[in-house]
Write a structure and sequence with these properties.
By secondary structure, this protein is of the alpha/beta class. It has one domain: SGNH hydrolase (Rossmann fold, 3-Layer(aba) Sandwich). The strands form two sheets. The chain has a five-stranded parallel β-sheet with strand order 4-3-5-6-7, with helices on both faces. It has a two-stranded antiparallel ribbon with strand order 1-2. Helix 2 crosses helix 9. It starts with a strand and ends with a helix.
Length: 200
């Protein structure tokens, strides 16, 4: 049976809706300091549409969110199950020096639920801030490759690859990418997203 979904005042068949990718993350996804059209989800959708892929990229980023916050709101995010999820969480865990074991537990629970619902996953990795020391960095940085291996899911090793530490690609805080930085992120992660969607 096809479900009815209300859009405005007119019901449409759920099967008629465009497929969706949800980007579950923090301020790096929400586009902190940027217009909505310059944020990662909007630019990723534009890049996919430019390649003839008819899909909606849903921004489910909340500034300041941790892996625990993402875990807590997962059921709401999945109220209408998407085709795929790009999971970008943990940056704030690292900034706050939270235990890597807690970050791993939260991400593991999120991935487990997504797999239970047969939703495709691309895990976007994060690196710990260098000021937290070598031991913390090694423990934190190992979380993402380990989860990808345990769950047999694709890993984009570092969401800020090519952007982190490059002044001209970041806002004044040195943490959040500017519009040019988002362009670099989209360009680098796009092959992974295309593969996730079964496109080359």
């Amino acid at each position: 049976m096809l479900a009815l979904v209300w859009l405005g005042t007119a019901p449409v068949l759920a099967a008629d809706l465009r497929p969706r990718i949800v980007v579950l993350g923090d301020s790096l996804v929400a586009g902190y300091g940027l217009p909505i059209k310059e944020a990662f989800p909007a630019k990723l959708q534009a890049a996919l549409e430019a390649r003839g892929i008819d899909i909606d990229v849903v921004d489910s980023g909340i500034s300041g969110d941790t892996s625990a916050g993402g875990r807590a709101r997962l059921n709401l995010v999945l109220a209408e199950p998407p085709r795929a999820v790009i999971l970008e969480l943990g940056a704030n865990d690292g900034l706050r020096g939270l235990k890597p074991t807690a970050t791993e537990e939260n991400l593991d629970a999120i991935i487990g639920e997504l797999r239970r619902q047969r939703i495709k996953i691309l895990l976007a990795g994060m690196y710990a801030p260098p000021n937290l020391g070598r031991d913390y960095g090694q423990a934190f940085n190992a979380v993402y490759p380990r989860l990808a291996k345990v769950h047999s899911i694709p890993l984009y090793p570092f969401f800020l690859d090519g952007v982190a530490g490059v002044p001209e690609l970041n806002q004044a805080d040195g943490i959040h990418p500017n519009a040019k930085g988002v362009d670099v992120i989209v360009e680098r992660i796009l092959p992974y997203v295309l593969k996730l969607l079964g496109r080359s």
